[in-house]
Amino acid sequence: MMFAAEALGGTGEPRHGDAVRWLMDMRQAVIHLNYRGVVAYLKDKHVESFQLVHAFTGGTEHERLVSMNTPLREVVRNAEKVSCYFPDTKTVFVENKPPRRSVLLELPEDLKQLSRHYEFKLEAQEYVAQRLSQVISIEPRDDFRYARRIWVDLESKLPLKFELIGENGQAVEQMMFTSLSIEEIIPDSELNASTKVDAFTWQVNRREAMPLRSLKWALRSVPDGFQMISYTRLIRTPTEHPVEHILLSDGFSSVSIYIDELGGDIVKGHQKKVGAINAHSRKIDRYLVTVMGEVPAKTVQAIAGGVHLQVNDAHD
Question: Which of 70, 157, 204, 256 is geometrically suited to a Cys-Cys bond with 94, CB 3.0 to 4.6 A?
Answer without folding.
Answer: 204
